[in-house]
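Each letter names a residue; structure tokens follow underneath. Both lines appear below:
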Amino acid sequence: MDTLPIINKTYEAYKEIIVINIHITKRNRYGLGTSLENSMVECLEDLIMAKNAPKNLKAVYLIKASSKLEISTLKLRLLLELSIANETTIFQMIPSQIGRVKSKNLPKGKEQM
């Protein structure tokens, strides 16, 4: 079974988030870190559901994944602004590239919802 590039990129970002969580303080790890991990797992779940869903339901799952990706991006930004994580590590994850791949998969007219 082939894995879509967007799923691979999201999975790679998820692995980086786990590495970040290992290196942050316990307070941040069990608050913001766990929340960020959960958001990425939910995003992966929605992407996999979109991959396997009937054509008329794909857009729904992609929109859900898009919102979870946006929430994850805000949480990463918060990690950066609070100097909890290294900015090089966060920028290497490149969530915007994941978003670009995702928007290519949305049906026409669904990108701006």
